[in-house]
Amino acid sequence: MRIEKIIVRDFRSHEFTKVTFTSGINLIIGQNGSGKSSLLDAILIGLYWPAKPKDLKKDSFLRVNGKSTEITIFFEKDGVRYQVHRNITRGIAFAKYYDGTWHYVTDANQKAVRDWMEKLIPYDIFVNAIYIRQGEIDAILESDESREKVVRKVLGLDKYENAYKNLLEVRKVIDSKIKGIEEYLNAMKNIDDMIKEAEKELSSAIRQINELSPQIPRLRREVEELEKKLDELDKLARELEKLKESKSGIEKSLEGINAKINSLAASIAERELKVKELDEKVKELEKIKPKAERYKELEEFYKEYSEIKAKAEKEVERYEGQISQIKERLEELEGRAEELEELQEKISKLDEQLGELEEYVKQYDEALRIKKTIESLRKRLSLSGEELKKLKAEIENAKQRKEEILREIEEIGEKKGELKNATSEKNKAILELRKAKGKCPVCGAELTEKHREDLIKKYTLEIESYAKEMEQLMRREKELRAELVKIEKILKKEKEVIANEEIFNQMQEHEKRLSKFNLKELEEKVKKHENLSAEKNKLEGRLRSIQEELKKKAALEKKKIYLERKISEIKANLYEYEVKLKNLGFEDIDTLKAEIGMLKPIYEKYLKLLNSQKELKAEKERLQRDKNELEILKEKKAGLEKALSEIKERLGELEKDYSKDEHERVRKEHIKKREALVKAETELENLEKRKEELIKNLENLKNEKENVKIKRKELEDLKKARERVQKLREKVRMFKNILKEDALAKVGEYASEIFEELTEEKYSGITVKAKESKVVLGVIYDGKERDLSFLSGGERIALGLAFRLALSLYLAGEIPLLIMDEPTPYLDDERRRRLVDIMERYLRKIPQVIIVSHDEELKDAADRVIRVRLENGVSRVEEVEVS
């Protein structure tokens, strides 16, 4: 399979993206979040939707503000070109192949395309053999446990594990059903005895029903006759009781009416007497009314005049006091005008003196600012002068030492390369010697076993010598790099040195400017300026105070005129009341007061008699109401006496026809017969219900007897099924273990071939051992098995990639296409360089490789680079051919 092109529209951050893939290594590169991994997700969704990993959810496909998510993929397999198109939003899909023209191969729906794609390239093969996900290579190298998880996932061993567990659940269900049936059969073991007992009870119930049925009609007739007789007696008893109650009620009403008649007669006599007394009081009220009204008029005028006169006198006194104060204040303000002119003259002289000192103040402010700047710069210094000089010298020495170390590291690198090449050549020679027959591949002479062993021993010693030298070089390189780290820490302080030198220079410049000022003289001038300013401020404060006081003069004069006018108005108002007093017939207030005293007793008597008219009217109305009510009660009394006579006559007639003893005897006999009837009916009803229940129960027992036979057969079938499930479960477990062992053996062979090639035959193979929840890897070096700690960082990444590719080869048989998602996120510099080397030397053998990464180093090994970047939330793609 080879992917030719993918077109994506409104998928995640991609608005419209078209990417063409070529043979060789295609690198999709970009920063995190740019949308590069979304292209791999689009390939997976485009080919296999809706079969998908758990982390791909339809809700997250459509781009923000997008209309419809569409994915189109062009690919080639076995010489035939195909096209798959999906519109995820609308649920439309189709697949076509090309043989000069395009032909549809499926119906236009998502499931049909997915099923067709599954037949062409199974989903499990694609995601496990072709697609290497992020972190898988690192997981292979991390630990034996994480490696076992990768193997289990890629080889699909989880399916067998799940099948093994699910069969256990099936067995538990069967066991539960077996237990239930056995309990049921145990409960039904006495079914025949239960049927016989039910038939016996049914016969007894039918016999009792036949005995009881004839008794009920006879009892019913007797009860009906007694009910008829009892109804007649009840009717007579009710009428008697009702007449007695009426008689008693009328007698009580007559007693109440007689009492009310007597009470009303007494009340009428009292009211007639009270009406006469009130009539005398009304006559006296009319006689004293004019004098009472004269008292009220004079009393009201006296109160009003007294209040106004007292208030007027107080106000006049207060206003005259305010006028006196205003006059005194106006005299004081005349003296303030002269003081104002003196103050203005003093302030003018002070302004002249302050103007002469202003320049000195500015110079002093500038000197203080410079001094403050120098202090601020001094606080920013992190080094003293001596420390600065010493650190500069130390940095210069570090720079020289860094150059020396880098040169030495470069020389060590060259020597390591030479040693690797020499080691590789000796390993090749050893392999050739082991395979050679006849002539020596080294010198061309006849190859004897002794000659072969001598040469292998010689070359092995040389390889060990190279290894020791390589170890010394690596140790030296490690020491140099450790020293280089310390030197870099020293060089980082260069910025601090430069910053301190700059601060020292600024301080010197400011100190030079500060030396130009005579600070002692300036301080004296500034102090004098401050004293004069304080004196001026004091005088200006006094000046403003006087000006404010003088502004109040006009207001005071205005207020004085207003107060004098108010006094005149008060006196005029008081004069009007004195005129009114004379009009009332009095020369002064004392004669008015004497007149009021004389009329007061008459007014008080008038007030007491004032309600007599209303009381007289109300009492006459109450007297008339009592007389009317007395007439009505007399008429009502006559009617009740007549009704009482009629009731007594009817009572005498009824008491002759009714016997209380007979009534009680009939009632008791009726109750007795009625209870006997109810008892018989209830007993018959219960027997009928019992009969129905027994018939139903008997039928159920017979059905259960048939069901017992069915359950026994079902129990036999379930026991056989349980045995089959248990055997199948053992087979699944055995097959999973065989498959795992076989797979790991084959994977080990593939991985050994790839790893030998990746390490230029430095290692002669890989060992793969399966343990419980672990897959243990080892390497063969110089005929001995070594663990992974023996490998360098680059060799470990080569081993991880070899093992993962071997898993893909086991699943697919060959690798025409390889997709790798972020293979370098956890790799250091050495391992990234090794991966680039592997890509150039080995991955290029695979017809098509697609790698997604953010690592710029990988582009050196790529045939085609596809750059992805994010602009305003939209992914943009740029395709670059690499020469």
Automatic annotation (TrEMBL):
<dbReference type="InterPro" id="IPR022982">
    <property type="entry name" value="Rad50_ATPase_archaeal"/>
</dbReference>
<dbReference type="Pfam" id="PF04423">
    <property type="entry name" value="Rad50_zn_hook"/>
</dbReference>
<keyword id="KW-0479">Metal-binding</keyword>
<dbReference type="InterPro" id="IPR027417">
    <property type="entry name" value="P-loop_NTPase"/>
</dbReference>
<keyword id="KW-0862">Zinc</keyword>
<keyword id="KW-0378">Hydrolase</keyword>
<feature type="binding site">
    <location>
        <position position="134"/>
    </location>
    <ligand>
        <name>ATP</name>
    </ligand>
</feature>
<feature type="binding site">
    <location>
        <begin position="32"/>
        <end position="38"/>
    </location>
    <ligand>
        <name>ATP</name>
    </ligand>
</feature>
<feature type="coiled-coil region">
    <location>
        <begin position="606"/>
        <end position="738"/>
    </location>
</feature>
<keyword id="KW-0547">Nucleotide-binding</keyword>
<dbReference type="InterPro" id="IPR038729">
    <property type="entry name" value="Rad50/SbcC_AAA"/>
</dbReference>
<dbReference type="InterPro" id="IPR013134">
    <property type="entry name" value="Zn_hook_RAD50"/>
</dbReference>
<feature type="binding site">
    <location>
        <position position="443"/>
    </location>
    <ligand>
        <name>Zn(2+)</name>
    </ligand>
</feature>
<dbReference type="Pfam" id="PF13476">
    <property type="entry name" value="AAA_23"/>
</dbReference>
<dbReference type="InterPro" id="IPR003959">
    <property type="entry name" value="ATPase_AAA_core"/>
</dbReference>
<dbReference type="GO" id="GO:0008270">
    <property type="term" value="F:zinc ion binding"/>
</dbReference>
<keyword id="KW-0067">ATP-binding</keyword>
<dbReference type="GO" id="GO:0006302">
    <property type="term" value="P:double-strand break repair"/>
</dbReference>
<feature type="coiled-coil region">
    <location>
        <begin position="181"/>
        <end position="573"/>
    </location>
</feature>
<protein>
    <recommendedName>
        <fullName>DNA double-strand break repair Rad50 ATPase</fullName>
    </recommendedName>
</protein>
<feature type="binding site">
    <location>
        <begin position="790"/>
        <end position="795"/>
    </location>
    <ligand>
        <name>ATP</name>
    </ligand>
</feature>
<dbReference type="GO" id="GO:0016887">
    <property type="term" value="F:ATP hydrolysis activity"/>
</dbReference>
<comment type="function">
    <text>Part of the Rad50/Mre11 complex, which is involved in the early steps of DNA double-strand break (DSB) repair. The complex may facilitate opening of the processed DNA ends to aid in the recruitment of HerA and NurA. Rad50 controls the balance between DNA end bridging and DNA resection via ATP-dependent structural rearrangements of the Rad50/Mre11 complex.</text>
</comment>
<dbReference type="Pfam" id="PF13304">
    <property type="entry name" value="AAA_21"/>
</dbReference>
<feature type="binding site">
    <location>
        <position position="12"/>
    </location>
    <ligand>
        <name>ATP</name>
    </ligand>
</feature>
<keyword id="KW-0175">Coiled coil</keyword>
<keyword id="KW-0227">DNA damage</keyword>
<comment type="similarity">
    <text>Belongs to the SMC family. RAD50 subfamily.</text>
</comment>
<comment type="subunit">
    <text>Homodimer. Forms a heterotetramer composed of two Mre11 subunits and two Rad50 subunits.</text>
</comment>
<feature type="domain" description="Zinc-hook">
    <location>
        <begin position="395"/>
        <end position="492"/>
    </location>
</feature>
<dbReference type="GO" id="GO:0005524">
    <property type="term" value="F:ATP binding"/>
</dbReference>
<dbReference type="InterPro" id="IPR003593">
    <property type="entry name" value="AAA+_ATPase"/>
</dbReference>
<keyword id="KW-0234">DNA repair</keyword>
<feature type="binding site">
    <location>
        <position position="440"/>
    </location>
    <ligand>
        <name>Zn(2+)</name>
    </ligand>
</feature>
